[in-house]
Design goal:
The structure is a homodimer of 193-residue chains.
Chain A: H1 5-28, H2 35-41, H3 46-52, H4 68-76, H5 84-101, H6 103-113, H7 116-139, H8 147-170, H9 177-188
Helix pairs in contact in A: 4-7, 5-8, 5-9, 7-8, 8-9
The structure holds a DNA duplex (30 and 30 nucleotides).
Chain lengths: 193, 193
DNA sequence: AAACTTGTGACACCTGGTGTCATGAAGTAG
DNA sequence: CTACTTCATGACACCAGGTGTCACAAGTTT
């Protein structure tokens, strides 16, 4: 049972809905675009939009969403003897690279940065995966971390991420994202490990 | 012209509105309490509630709000030769202490922690003062910081704050907040300064 | 083809939030 | 004390994001 027509159409509709939404947001701004307009532009009803996305904001994160599960999986795949900080660096560098690769995403990132409710959404998602990541750090074979240190490392990693992101935006997207992230991770390297 | 009756009543109503709101939130939860209910419980209209608070969420932050201005002012008052990281530590320790002092605030903190939309609000406020703080760090007499480093220090400081807060909540509010914060700042001390 | 499941439109409804207007009270002259 | 201005309030209408419900039309299975 490979994949029914239903799931395929569902994903297709979902993707198109997101694309249309992003276009409209870019054109008229996030707040000034109603869900009704998006839905009608896609030939659907408002009600149906909400069957594809739980909220208007979620349409923006279609291609950008870095799930906690993904990060955790990558983290557990790192060599067991690697210092936690280096593992975090490697994993987050990779997921950054991945997001940044899809040209579509860059427009999304700028939109997010300039829209308060979207930034809030980012933080919400992030605080969810911070828990998972912190746990994952402690669950690594041979790891000897207390909860406090694991949280601290995780929070510091997101600080590095944020700093790199801010610098990148300040450069209008011209700076080398990977290099910025590396610099942040270097400077912040905790004294523990 | 010391202070008109108008301003006094306004502040009194505002405070009482916040208190009533906090009670109702504690009782029925934030989402399940409508603005209408709060307003009626205070003998006002929904419309009038919004003349005191721009949004439902803001009623929660009455006593807790650490303004960016406050932090900046404290920061500039630190000795000029103190390392930025130490200044941040001192200022944030103090503001933490201040919030924690008011017994009323603790209920608010727990409510915030358990309500997504409130947590989002916190992050929103924080990202606003991070800009200010980062600027303030660079504006200190004799400071020689590039924007990147200033952002990094600021972000790292909030990481420390978050970590201490998480640990404190994990201990059900029994741990020594100041000690936790100190430990976080020690471990995170950046290699630069 | 019949029976079942799932996506859809239509419609009603709730809640947060804003614009507007009339009214009455607080503050200020004369 | 009276007249004039200013401001907070209630009342009402309105918008947008979300959710519940139901009937119907697809897609799916036997």
């Amino acid at each position: 049972m490979p994949e029914g027509l239903r799931e395929r159409t569902r994903r297709a509709v979902r993707a198109e809905l997101a694309a249309i939404a992003l276009d409209l947001f870019a054109e008229r701004g996030f707040e000034d675009t109603t869900v009704e307009e998006i839905a009608r532009a896609a030939g659907l009803t408002k009600r149906s939009f909400f069957r594809y996305f739980p909220a208007k904001e979620d349409a923006v994160f279609e291609g950008i969403d870095v799930t906690g599960d993904q990060v955790v999986r990558d983290l557990l795949a790192r060599p067991a003897d690697e210092a936690p900080w280096q593992s975090l660096r490697a994993v987050l560098s990779e997921s950054e690279r991945q997001i940044h690769a899809s040209g579509q995403a860059v427009a999304g990132l700028k939109l997010i940065e300039s829209t308060p409710s979207l930034r809030a959404r980012v933080h919400e998602k992030r605080s969810r995966w911070r828990q998972q990541v912190s746990r994952a750090l402690r669950d690594r074979p041979g790891a000897d971390l207390d909860a406090f240190t694991a949280d601290l490392l995780t929070n510091a990693a997101t600080a590095a991420l944020d700093t790199a992101s801010q610098a990148w935006l300040r450069s209008d997207g011209t700076a080398d994202r990977a290099a910025l992230l590396d610099r942040a991770f270097d400077l912040l390297q905790p004294t523990t490990a």
